TrEMBL record:
SUPFAM superfamilies (UniProt xref): Ankyrin repeat (SSF48403), SAM/Pointed domain (SSF47769)
Region annotated Disordered, chain positions: 307-343
ANK repeat placement: 115-147, 148-180
Enzyme class: transferase
UniProt name for this protein: NAD(+) ADP-ribosyltransferase
Record-linked Pfam families: Ank (PF00023), Ank_2 (PF12796), SAM_1 (PF00536)
GO biological process: protein K6-linked ubiquitination
Location of the SAM domain: 233-296
Keyword Transferase assigned: yes
């Protein structure tokens, strides 16, 4: 059979110049690369061996694989390229029995990897309750922090591991320990939106009123979670305690020294004097609150009964409610033809309408507060981004954002007095 080539054009084929793949590259440099020795060929049998790190991640010990036994005896604390040890793999993947076996041989429970994480931090993030209990039993440092300032309690709250959070708190973990951004486990729980975790942390003296480096406290961070907001607002605040004691004039002193409620409850008489509270009466009232809390575990606050009505803070919510109720209250008319029961019923009806009006106004104020909290988070995020992005840094915009953050915080603090 005859074969013929077929062309679809009678024109002469177009010739192209060969592409210069090397460009301006020196031919000698290219030849040097060609002369480099080839990569060493590794026999497949090399990959059949089981190292201690892989074994630990699978929950396998030297007892299970005889050929692993020699390395298991000598390299149990060996670090891989990222400084992970066999214990870290076992803890991270929840092999609690293997963790106990490793710790019984090599009791180095607080070894850290390249980012400063310990086996306890890894276990706390993954929810293995038994593993956490074993690590705590072997003396793991529950206050240790990694390269960004996170402790094991930060990890358990971030990943919403409530059972592990309980274990760590019972073991003495600090719910107010700050990371490098000023975030505490309490603030992280507010960010995650876990009402149960926030409640537990507050029970162990966690302070939702603490502010991070962006100026956000628990209320601002939890603005999208109404149940957490309600929980936080039902907690006593240092400012509220000072107002109940009639000592609101000292609020600026506590704000100046960044004294939170948890710090206040550990102050001594000398600390109060050094802050500028030199009068004996106010100092005694504050020390009584601290003493009652340490002895009975409750905040027993006795208001200043000597404060007259004229000097009461008009911005307090109780004062506002009293004034609104008084202004809307209808006194019984002196009418001999009407019975006292009818007058009383009329008064009750008017008071009920007044309280409904006050409730509606408070609801509007709460909604405004939540909106301000959301705007505060958004503006704070823009401010932080503007501050870090030096390539397009605008000093005027930076100043305006900083003022906006400050005004929102002031507005939120003012609204908080009414709700």
């Amino acid at each position: 059979m005859e074969h013929r080539s077929v062309r679809f054009s009678t024109k002469k084929p177009v010739e192209h110049e060969a592409a210069d793949l090397l460009g301006d590259w020196d031919q000698d440099e290219f030849q040097k690369i060609l002369r480099l020795p080839l990569t060493k060929i590794i026999n497949d049998t090399y990959y059949d061996r089981l190292d201690v790190h892989t074994a630990a991640s699978l929950g396998i010990s030297g007892k299970d694989v005889p050929e692993l036994a020699p390395e298991w005896e000598t390299n149990l604390n060996a670090e891989n390229a990222h400084k992970w040890t066999p214990l870290m793999y076992a803890a991270y993947l929840g092999h609690h029995k293997l963790c106990e076996e490793i710790l019984s041989r090599v009791p180095l429970v607080d070894t850290v990897n390249e980012v400063g994480q310990t086996a306890l931090m890894l276990a706390a993030s993954c929810g293995s309750v038994d593993t956490v209990k074993i690590l705590v039993k072997y003396g793991a440092d529950i206050t240790r922090q990694d390269s960004r300032g996170w402790s094991s309690l930060h990890y358990s709250t971030h990943y919403n591991q409530s059972a592990i959070t309980d274990i760590l708190l019972e073991a003495g973990a600090d719910p107010n320990l700050q990371d490098k951004e000023g975030m505490t486990p309490v603030l992280i729980a507010c960010e995650v939106g876990s009402e149960a975790t926030v409640s537990t942390l507050i029970k162990y003296k966690g302070d939702p009123n603490h502010r991070n480096l962006r100026g956000e406290n628990g209320e601002a961070i939890a603005a999208e979670f109404p149940k957490i907001l309600k929980l936080i607002r039902n907690q006593p605040s240092l400012e509220g305690i000072l107002r109940q004691l009639g000592l609101e004039k000292y609020i600026p002193l506590f704000e100046r020294d960044e004294i939170t409620l948890s710090l206040f409850l550990n102050l001594t008489e000398n600390d109060l004097t050094d802050m500028g509270i030199t009068l004996f009466g106010p100092r005694k009232k504050l020390l009584n609150v601290i003493k009652q809390y340490k002895e009975r575990g409750i905040l027993a606050v006795e208001p200043d009964l000597t404060t007259s009505e004229a000097t009461r803070d008009p911005s307090s919510s109780n004062s506002i409610l009293e004034k609104k109720s008084a202004s809307l209250k209808v006194e019984p008319k002196s009418n001999p033809n009407s019975s006292s029961s009818n007058d009383l019923a009329q008064v009750k009806n008017e008071l009920a309408r007044a309280m409904n009006l006050i409730g509606a106004q408070q609801k509007e104020l709460r909604e405004q507060f939540e909106l301000n909290a959301y705007l505060h988070r958004f503006v704070a995020m823009l401010y932080e981004k503007q501050r870090k992005d030096r390539t397009s840094f605008d000093p005027k915009l930076n100043n305006e954002l900083e003022q906006a953050v400050s005004r929102l915080i002031t507005s939120m603090n003012r609204l908080k007095n009414f709700i």
